[in-house]
Fold these 2 entries.
Entry 1:
Amino acid sequence: MRRSSIVLCSLAALLAVAGLAADAGTATRAQCASPRATPGYARSVQRAVLSGRDVWGERLLAAPNGPTYAAARGFLAPLLHAIQRRQRPLTPAGFYYVPLSFPFSVYGSTVFALHVADGSEIFTRRVGGPSLSFYVGNGRERYGSCSARLEPAKLSDGYLPIVETAYADAHGLRYRQESFVGRAYSARSVVSFVRLEIDARNARAAAIVRLVPSRRLAHNEPDRLSSRSATRLIFSTGGEVVDGVVRYRVAAGDVATVYAAWLNGPSDAKFVHADAVTYDAARAVVARFWQERLRSGAHFDVPEPAVRNAQLGILGQEATFGWRYSVGNPYEELSFAEALDTAEVTAEYGFRNVARAILEVTLKRLRLKPQRFTAFRAGHLLATSAEYYRLTRDRAFVRAETPELARLVTRIAARRVTSGPSRGRLRPEPLSSDIPYEVDSVVAQITAWQGLLAMERVWGVTGHRDLAARARNLALSIQAALRPALERQMVRLRDGSVFVPDALSGPRGPFDRLTVTREGSYWNLVMPYALASGFFRAHSHVAEGIVRYVLAHGSRILGVPRADAHIVYANKPYGSGLGQAYGLSMSRFLADNGEAGQLALSLYGMLAIGMTPGTYISGEAISVVPVLGAYYRSMYMPPNSGGNASYLETLRLTLIHERRGPDGAPTGLDLAFATPRSWLASGQTIRVEDAPTSFGNLSYEIARSGALITGRVVAPARSRIRLKLRLPAGERLGGVWIGSRRIPFAAATATIDLSGRKGAIAFRATVRR
């Protein structure tokens, strides 16, 4: 084998591209045809969409051990494409991108590089910004342009923000690309480091690799291209510059590695080089940073790598995005509801500084832009601030923000109707920011009620008793005016389900199939905020009826919320999409009402069909039905912080659920109440460490070996803990012991009540068939 003058790599590092042609024969040389959805696949998807029930989810729930990730993945094509307004591709390649940054503050990053998931291009900061593109084969084939020969992006080690792709060109040459964002001495901006391995051993012709900047750059030094005398691109030995483009030639039979460093802000960078030493050093720093960063919060260690990796990868996204709804596109803005959901989840995972920063930004934005005030936003801000305090006991935050939080209470009070049949309720407002008309919003009033009571409890223990009394009195007055009016408009349907409208004015249902109409779709996305508030007492007849309505009227697919996702379709088929961004509150409502199977289904459904495989990117709206015959599915304006928060919250709820009283106050903890049954098979371990709760930080571990389960719970004081052991099908608990004492348990549900026990509680249990 001849050796190229380009940096050589070991043969062992050149692995075959999974799923690609095995040789350089006719399959790889043939003209690439974009994968198309078969008629049979399209019909099966359409049947599921037209059903009033989650037929796929019910199939998984009926399995002996309930839903699994492997089963959930089998229903829909992968989610790979991204679009923007008017169904235009978000990137030239049509693929989504992975936003990367390093490092950043607790407010998130302001500097991003967007690495497109097919490996074709890197954008600086925003789509349409300066970019570097990659061409292979004869030098005119865009890397990743044939999806049939592409292994799309995945994260290194399953979760690190280091993007890996693989590709085979039309002549059978194979490539592996890895890229990440890091820092380098003398470069004042972040740097996108790229390593491209080329395998031409089975090729009949040489490979031409080209690095193409989006704008013409000057070649004023041997290994770099510059803009206005500042370096933008640095490339490894062996490249020649022709008309502003860097070109490499790899002879047939050779293997080689090309390195590149794309500076997201041109700078001197005189000590930066594109070689293995620089690349490996920068990569090690980034990997170490993220490993330490993700270890700094709570630990939710579950015995399923796909679930665990998604958790870590998404946590990294949330910390990087901060308050942003999206990154790198027109949706990079503050969206109040989704930002506050992210604040709650990051606090629950132990990232208190991120949560506080998001709260500070949202409070400041509402103060500076008072025209954006609504009762819903104010109530949500109060509720999230209260949850942040419960989880962190951060009195400094309460002291600093009480004046602004008190102003929110005043503004809510000013919205009360003072006369007529609506007296005591709050004035109408839009149900959502993209709805142009006002309604007598049930969601806004319940959210205000929830936030007022939550802050009443916080102010009551932090020395603000007058404010606490004021918030409580206002909450109770809203409740007294709203509940009778709402009860008059509730509808009990023939199937035993209960429909609760999201507004007391206008044509608001009930809906036979929720997402067939725009109004029903908005009910499905917005109403869960009210359902999860505690206003409808858990396990009451009304709450159980609402659960039946949700499950029997087209609310979900594989446990993921459905939506009127017309923005991802050219022909606007109402109700044919997903809205994972709004799954958080529905998961809370289902957890409150003991729907363990539905929570496990949502966890796997969100991972399988609500996010991109291997990189965990989600969009505001996601297609289900094939778009114009395309096989791969599309999403709107990814990434999306709300979709991330929904997944993280659902995972946490399978492991920790806080029970609440009738006014929303926490009353106890349920541990492992919704874990997938496979997680307690022999040889498996579930571990939670230092997880914040309303009662204090919690740790527990459950491990199984054969017929013996051992466990340990380190419980905060006065937490009234219950623990459930969800065993695989056909198994049941034989006995439970603490020390030498056998303790009672609920045999039908395998639930152990640990209330009243203090400190570290060690137990063991036996399993019988």
Entry 2:
Amino acid sequence: MTEYKPQQLDKKWQQTWTASKAFEVDLDPSRPKFYALEMFAYPSGYAHVGHVRNYIIGDVMARTKRMRGYNLLHPFGWDAFGLPAENAAIKTGTHPETSTLDNIAHMKGQLQRLGISYAWSREIATCQPDYYKFNQWIFLKMFERGLAYRKRSTVNWCPSCNTVLANEQVIDGKCWRCGSTVEARELEQWFFRITEYADELLKGLDTLTEWPEKVVVMQRNWIGRSEGARITFRVADSDQTFEIFTTRIDTIYGATFGVLAPDHPLVDRFAAESADRVAFRERVARFRSLDREARLTGAIEKEGFDTGRKAINPFTNEEVPIWIANFVLAEYGTGAIMAVPAHDDRDYEFARKYNLPIRIVVSHGDQTPASADEMTTPTTNYGVLVNSGPWNGREAPAVIHDMIRDAEQRGIGKGEVQYRLKDWGISRQRYWGTPIPIIHCEKDGVVAVPYEDLPVELPKVTTFTGRGDSPLAQVAEWVNVTCPTCGGPARRETDTMDTFVDSSWYFLRFADPKNTELPFDPVPAAYWMPVDLYIGGVEHAILHLLYSRFFTRVLRDVGLVNFDEPFTRLLTQGMVLKNGAVMSKSKGNVVDPDDMLQKYGADALRLYVMFVAPPEKEVEWSDSGLEGSFRFLVRVWRIVDHWAETVGGEGLPESVMADCTDAERALRRKTHDTIRRVTTDIEERMHLNTAVSSLMELVNEIYSFSEGTAHGAPTRGEPPAGRVERPQAIAALREALDALVLMIAPFAPHTAEEMWTMLGHVDGLAAAKWPSFDPEVAKADQVEVPVQINGKVRARVTVPADASEDSLREVALSNTIVRSHTSGKTIRKVVIAKGPLVSVVVS
């Protein structure tokens, strides 16, 4: 018997695939296309098993589709810009380009050793000028359309390092590098006007029927469409005003105080007019320095202080105090709220903490406390208005429309639709990113870099200190340029782009990765797009996917694509855990795939990761489970090796199958039924674990058939020692083994390729077709049917596969075990359910 040496097979077949360009593709309008894509990788230097699970899932799907006759595009690339490489440069002095390219080379080798069937000729890296040139091209198209613009915005500022910090570099309000307290500072920043597409992005979610519902809900909530009213509050004894947006204008008579964000425009004016300017500004500065994400999510204790100023409630005409609080942000809504503590959880908590007035204005009958003093929790549902002047007795939400119309007639407000979604700030004061293609001229202002001058390449920066201005601003020979409009002295923009820009259109670049004139040609994009199956972590469910949907629509309006949605089907794969925790280098619980490949080979690892759980579920790593997958492959190898010489060569004519024994017929039925189940599990349900289970059952059936058919006594656990002479048995075995090898190929391609050759097939599996099944052959002669009594399975009966409901009922009720459970009892109901299943109800 030939020994199974997976490491040798890995090397042999990977070299063969590379030499033959087995996975490279071109446009072929005569064939159906399929575009399978896993989210490209950040080149961190290594890939553990938790990283590569989604690549293996994608490869199983890609290989299956290729065998099913699709023209299959399965590319890969690298999300190569980003903060981690720059942070490493600050710590070690290694240039980001050097570390990034070294990491790419290492991770690419890992993926190739796993046998992932990528079209490597289409590989991209976003840090290369031939890619980020078109980040800049797209930016300029947005700039021309008013979708890219500049405005002042709040950033994290470290006063010690004298630099802007990313959110990830702020730890508990301190600088990651020096520990100084981080301040909020306003700088000119570049934005993409994604809100221009908010309605369209929201409506488009209704078409994404093959996305996980949880992801659709997350995106819908992030966009956050709200219908309400914008109401103007006047500051007492002044000509100053501020606006609030509310979806519950019906509660405005219960607004007992107003709250401004620490960075609201009025705050600095109030501070300047305060009797104790220093204390006022110190409290504001502390609120501004708090982590904005924590302020937004409520993950901080709510704090505030009274400004001493009053605002006029435009509906009651009463004065209410104006407070500043840490839980209100200037960039969300209007940066100010009317606080209605009786009917809002956050406002109620704040009011109780600072002993602020609470007024009930919505009644729910007997459930409403007689006074605010008796209230222990706010009531947030609609109800009948009370303490609301002329609106008393009216019910919300019906009254809301009339109250908005009243506000509009009196000039104190207007109806408005707002979105939680805000414009996308893309400015980063970093080096390792795409330079923004803008020039600043004293005479002509903001000037776009001409298209013919793209790409604006990153200059070489040799020293990374993490201190001072943006790294690009320190390269004088790069910054100082001539204005393309007037020819006078000018300066380049020194901000770089958010790396989400890189990932918002890379899937389109794969359609035409060598194009030097355009991001991609519309013809190949129209052929390959949209992506048929997109696989990646749920942590990207909001921003990456939302930005990709936005970019696709912009490029549609530019004229490069003719569709709206980039991804038809989305799979968010589950995480891989070890010792109950997600694999992480910091936790020391990672599993290096190279170690597993050296011990068991690529196919055992691939098979185990697919078998242990459904793709969307978490996986608890187990070395013993991996060893079990290896043993299964050895078992498959042995049975194929044993019968290869007997069944190899040309197939027998179909007429031979006419005179089969029961055993031969049973093997054929199992073969065809397995093809049916595995095909459905992979293509329709993506239940890759149950597909592997079905293959294991088929292997058991082949062993059982072999032991019962061959002459000579088999050794336990080994293939039979004898031979088969009946043509029908040979034909049934050949059919079963061929189908087994073809179906196991997406999971264990190296082993399958070798076994396919052993079975006498000249062409490799890359050109092989997926097996087909005959429904008549797959149909069972008899089926085993479980019988439930009062919900518990008590017996199983065997009946003809085409048995009628009446005969099935009769056989079930006459079964000895069933009779023992029903004797002396009244049979109330007998239901024949799909499956089939017999359910008996007795009392």
